[in-house]
Amino acid sequence: MKDLKDILRFIKYDKKNFIMSITLIIVETLFELIIPFVMKDIINKGIKGESMGPILIYGLIIIGCALMSVITGHFYSIFNARFISNYSYMLRGEIFKKIQTFSFANLDKFEASTLITRITNDVSVIQNTLSGSVRPIIRSIMMLVLGVGLSFILSPRLAWIFIVAIPLLALILILIIRNTAPKYKRLQEDIDQINLVVREDIVAIRTVKAYVREEHENAKFNQANNSVTKTTTSTFKVSTLNQPAFELTMYAVTVMILFFGAKLVHNDELLVGTLSALLSYVMQVVNSIMMLSNIFLLLNRSFASASRVNAVLKEEPTIKNEGKDFVDRGNIEFRNVDFKYKESSEELVLKNINLSIPSGTSLGIIGGTGSAKSTLVSLICRLYDVSKGEILIDSKNIKEYDLNNLRDSVSIVLQNNVLFSGTIRQNLLWGNKDASDDEIYNALKIAQAYEFVSSLGGLDYDLGQGGVNVSGGQRQRLCIARALLKNPKIIIFDDSTSACDMETERKILEGIRGLKDVTNIIIGQRVMSVCEADKIIILDDGEIVGEGNHQSLYYTSNIYKELCDTQLGGNYNGNNASS
Residue 67: how many CB atoms within 10 A of its CB? Predict the structure, then answer.
């Protein structure tokens, strides 16, 4: 309940339409409640008194009340539609904005599929709950309170039946809610799983087809789909008991009032019109309780969705932008840095890293799979924060820098190259939205992408979703060009030329090293990728086990010598790196 209350705070962004909706509901309900009271006088004074005057007067009043109820109900629909639309817009926007503030550590807590479900399906559940519950809640509460009150005014001797019926209905509702609440949470988790399966299949569709695994993927989807079906069926089996149970109670109350009321009428202790009005209020009261029960069931599902949405909104970014300084050059220094992904983890991913990278120089990083090469460079632009020690740029702890400026000063081309739907130009302008065509072409030339871009028809060529219209090597080169357009002080290549041939890679790295006053860090699996760097470090199991230039490492590091001999031939010596 608390989670739903927290989510509803976004109502404040559109108070005007919300207040107008509530006001119109109250007015509409009051007009409806007046009708049975007036109907009593038509029967008692008009029909029983055999006079047309009261029938016409009270009939016009009833028509007027009904007409005003319809008009206010119509205007309520308009204001409510505006309010619901604005509320959902603001809630989705807040969730998406919150996700943008997350560090990698925060994102590690949530699957991509569950974030998609929360911003779409869960928000829709909350939206539908609001849309379908605001009016019934207010109407049902008013009808319940005023209906019972007016019933006691009309006939206290019959109104006691409510004292028996209302607790019975409340007990039925509590039992149903207790059984359905956990199932609604499980249902949303099952929807998460469907999204995960669909997302993985679509993203990896080429791999699926290449390995002829369509049947396997169909089986996975069917399993997830069956889980949703079973949970839904189980949930609605219980929740659908709500209406018949309430209808049975309603009819029982009606029969009891008719039975006892008929006796009172027969003994001239109650007028027929009063009994008719009382029956109308009975119907309104019981219907109001039925509406409340349906609303509680609707709210029951929204509690699960509200909890999931609130978990995202309440997640505190592990990396906060509290610095104010701006990066000037690009001198990097690691001092006694340790790192682990979770505080609870016992094993360190990086251990006692001490490293200095002067501005304008190049650093090569090489090591086996899982040696934490990517993790090391991700710490520089604070994709993660260090667990111990500190990283300095220009002799200042990176936490002292404005986070946006820090990341804008560092270009990082990751292993997994990501392009977005749109043209080549639109993708490259991510690096610098104000870049001219000349600047774009210059970046493409350094990235060895100018020729193939020209052959595709230029910068307005549509890349398709995720860059599907170009090859892996072409995607890498476009990502490199995009990174260059940032005019960074530090540029990081995380095995970013692995899909390029050796000659293309050599030209790209020559172009990068030729950039003036730019600190460049190159992670590579191939010796040829790093051998021309001013300094090379060898990582093994999160530790630096070798440091120096190419020639010195060849003679002092067995790991590096073995890599050179394996990749470049047994007759290789440490003096012909670029041959």
Answer: 11
pTM: 0.68
pLDDT (tens digit per residue) in 325-356: 898 888 999 999 999 988 878 889 999 999 99
pLDDT tens-digit map of 383-425: 889 999 999 999 999 999 999 899 999 998 877 778 888 899 9
Query: How are strands ordered across the β-sheet holding 388-393?
Result: 350-357, 332-339, 388-393, 396-397
- Work out whether the CA dihedral 477, 482, 483, 484 comes out positive or negative: positive
β 490-494/410-413 pair status:
parallel
The percent helix, strand, coil of the chain (3-state, each to 5) is 65, 10, 25
Contact (CB, 8 A) for 301 and 176: no
Cβ(479)–Cβ(419) under 8 Å?
A: yes
Crossing angle of helices 123-154 and 272-314, rounded to 10°: 150
Alpha-carbon span 368 to 541, nearest angstrom = 8
**What are the residue boundaries of the structural domains of the chain, listed by start?**
2-314, 332-568
CB neighbourhood size of 224 (10 A): 19
Distance from CA of residue 365 to its chain's centroid?
36
Q: Tell me the pLDDT tens digit for each residue of 59-112.
A: 888 888 889 988 998 898 899 889 888 888 989 999 999 998 888 888 888 877
2-314 and 332-568, same CATH topology: no
User: CATH for 2-314?
Assistant: 1.20.1560.10
- Domain spanning 332-568: CATH 3.40.50.300: yes
Q: Is the pLDDT reported for residue 579 higher than 60?
A: no
